[in-house]
């Protein structure tokens, strides 16, 4: 999933945490937010400054048992679409090879028909790939938003209980993100993931238990790995292509 995930999703969690911290309103799902701890120098400051922590929000989403389960299910859901696109891409490439190898030997009408067929199928592939990509990312974002809404009070509770004055999202490196540098000792990502898992009651996916592989950010997944190549009727089509976004 691209930065689309963090664009609206991270903003939502920041606003939610801010609202919880300021108003102490009820958390999503009806659970009451933890009351703020009494403000003291010991709980809010470290070496005379504000206690700061970082959380990789994107990593935290997919590293939860719930996120790992739901993103894996989403990948499986789109497998038929991926296969369909790959087959169509293979068909286009085969027609292009035929044009490249036999085009000079064809009569004008046969060559024009083949070029037209390539263009039509390529346009269909491009549209289908874009539709699949948009649907995939939209459903990724729905999963992320749902998890973030439930993760917000977990973050809020931990921050208050441990005297943090500021938490920063480390999903993207500077200058794309707000964090320039931080030591690993202030990274709370795993701590928040563990707290979320304990509260959600969702068991780790079976694949994660057996393989023991590290979670990856959803930004790295796409439903289709096809690259429809560009063709023009006036000349033999090139073999290079553009990846649908």
Overall description:
With 245 residues, the chain is mostly helical. It has helices spanning 4-23, 41-44, 57-63, 65-77, 79-102, 108-161, 189-200, 206-211; strands spanning 45-46, 49-50, 52-55, 166-169. The longest helix has 54 residues, at 108-161. The protein starts with a helix and ends in a 34-residue tail after the last helix. Residues 1-47, 212-216 and 219-245 have low confidence and may be disordered.
Structural class: mainly alpha
Number of structural domains? 1
Question: Roughly how much helix do the residues carry, as a percent range?
Answer: 55-70%
Terminus-to-terminus distance: 11 Å
Spatial shape = elongated
Largest sheet: 2 strands, antiparallel
> Could you report the average pLDDT, rounded to the nearest whole number?
75
Strand content is under 5%
Please state how the strands of the largest beta sheet are arranged side by side.
1-2
What is the count of β-strands? 4
Number of helical regions: 8
Helix/strand order, N-terminal first: HHEEEHHHHEHH
Q: pLDDT under 50 segments (min length 5)?
A: 1-47, 212-216, 219-245
Radius of gyration: 25 Å
């Amino acid at each position: 999933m691209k930065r689309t995930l963090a664009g609206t999703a991270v903003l939502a969690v920041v606003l939610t945490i801010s609202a919880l911290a300021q108003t102490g309103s009820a958390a999503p799902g009806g659970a009451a937010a933890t009351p703020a701890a009494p403000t003291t120098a010991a709980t809010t400051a470290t070496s005379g400054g504000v206690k700061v922590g970082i959380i990789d929000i994107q990593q935290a989403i997919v590293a939860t048992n719930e996120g790992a389960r739901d993103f894996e299910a989403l990948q499986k859901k789109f497998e038929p679409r991926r296969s369909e696109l790959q087959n169509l891409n293979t068909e286009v490439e085969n027609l292009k090879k035929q044009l490249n190898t036999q085009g000079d030997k064809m009569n004008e009408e046969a060559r024009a028909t083949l070029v037209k067929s390539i263009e039509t199928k390529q346009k269909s592939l491009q549209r289908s790939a874009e539709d699949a990509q948009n649907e995939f990312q939209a459903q990724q974002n729905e999963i992320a938003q749902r998890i973030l809404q439930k993760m917000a009070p977990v973050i809020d509770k931990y921050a208050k209980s441990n005297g943090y004055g500021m938490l920063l999202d480390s999903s993207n490196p500077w200058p794309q993100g707000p964090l320039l540098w931080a030591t690993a000792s202030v990274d709370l990502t795993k701590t928040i993931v563990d707290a979320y898992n304990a509260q959600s009651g969702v068991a780790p996916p079976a694949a994660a238990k057996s393989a023991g592989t590290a979670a990856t950010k959803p930004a790295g997944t796409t439903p289709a790995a096809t690259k429809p190549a560009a063709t023009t009727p006036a000349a033999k089509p090139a073999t290079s292509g553009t990846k649908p976004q």
